[in-house]
Design a protein that fits this description.
Elements lengths: L4 E5 L2 E7 L15 E7 L1 H11 L4 E8 L2 H12 L3 E8 L6 E6 L5 E6 L13 H5 L3 E7 L8 H12 L3 E6 L7 H5 L8 E2 L3 H8 L4 H10 L4 E5 L5 E4 L6 E3 L12 H14 L4 H15 L12 H10 L5
Helix pairs in contact: 1-8, 6-7, 8-9, 9-10
Length: about 325
């Protein structure tokens, strides 16, 4: 393929501090060794990884007309990411997250939804989507102006234009999982949620049962992200794949799921087999956590393939 990947979803500025050894009591202060400003949000994270892997990529989303919005847009442009689909909001600030990273790499978040909440169907450039090879929605369930029927409409239109569709979710504190997603499921070629999210969507526990239920709802291929337990990939008429994670030293797990998604997109974009695509996605996700920030550990396509072929997996 030579057409770009279009990533629609949440755009966030992340302030990351690490390592956090204890949560301060009210009125108290604790010190961390590092603190920095990074881009975040599913659409930015996935697009940044795709750009690092050498794929052409465009982003659709919304940020505020503020310094954090300038930072996010400028950072994407510096990475070679197209930003013509990014809208600026004069009334709501750029979405931002305080990310506190524990010594073991686990994270705690304080989040401001901001301009992401005001992205609507009318903000979306259908021309960008129609000219894409792959259309990815990242951050589904926390895009109130897009979630539900508008998401289904976008995915259906993309498929009608011959575009391959991907969707990834985040945790939905409102508990509307299947209610919001069900209209979209028949129009998703590749669905790549985390296992806990997918369990909430279908109300089942075992990974195989979860993936099978999503297939029954019309999804083309399901890839469940299972952290240290690797991933499970199911597609009708093909053997179910259950692949282990790679052994890596975890520095910061921020963006690991988005990196896995980007790796899967990259494999499909290049026409690889499902097995190679899944292994590559696991390698991209594994490398991500070896650096600070949502794409800090991501490497080039050639370096990632070398890692995939030589690194040890978790037993």
């Amino acid at each position: 393929m030579d057409k770009p990947v279009v990533c629609l979803g949440i755009l966030v500025a992340d302030v990351v501090g690490r390592p956090l050894h204890s949560v301060p009591d009210p009125g108290r202060l604790v010190l961390v060794d590092e603190m920095g400003l990074y881009t975040g949000g599913c659409a930015v994270n996935a697009a940044s990884v795709l750009a690092a892997l050498g794929l052409p990529v465009e982003v659709i989303g919304k940020v505020g007309a503020d310094p954090l919005g300038d930072f996010v847009v400028n950072a994407m442009q510096e990475r070679g990411i197209g930003t013509q689909g990014v809208k600026r909001d004069d009334e709501r600030g750029t979405s931002a997250t305080m990310v506190m990273v524990d010594p073991d790499g686990e994270r705690r978040f304080v989040h401001y939804i901001g301009a992401n909440a005001r992205l609507t169907f009318e903000d979306v450039s259908m021309q960008l989507i129609n000219e894409a090879s792959i259309f990815y929605i990242g951050g589904s369930l926390v895009l109130p102006g897009i979630d539900g029927a508008p998401t289904a409409k976008l995915l259906q239109a993309a498929q009608a234009a011959g575009v391959i569709t991907f969707l990834d979710t985040v945790w939905d504190d409102t508990g509307r999982w299947m209610k919001l997603l069900e209209p979209s499921l028949p129009f998703i070629d590749y669905f790549i949620p985390s296992l806990p999210e997918a369990q909430q969507i279908v109300g089942l526990d075992e990974p195989e049962e979860v993936a099978s239920a999503l297939i029954d709802h019309g999804v083309g291929t399901v890839a469940l992200k299972m952290g240290a337990d690797g991933c499970l990939v199911m597609s009708p008429g093909k053997d179910t794949l259950r692949l282990p994670a790679y052994q890596v030293e975890v520095v910061d797990a921020t963006g690991a799921g988005d990196s896995f998604a980007a790796g899967f997109i990259a494999g499909v974009w290049q026409g690889w087999s499902l097995d190679k695509t899944a292994r590559f996605a696991s390698a991209v996700g594994g490398l991500c956590v070896t650096g600070v920030g949502a794409s800090g550990g991501v490497r080039s396509l050639a370096e990632t393939i070398d890692f995939m072929e030589t690194a040890q997996v978790v037993n």
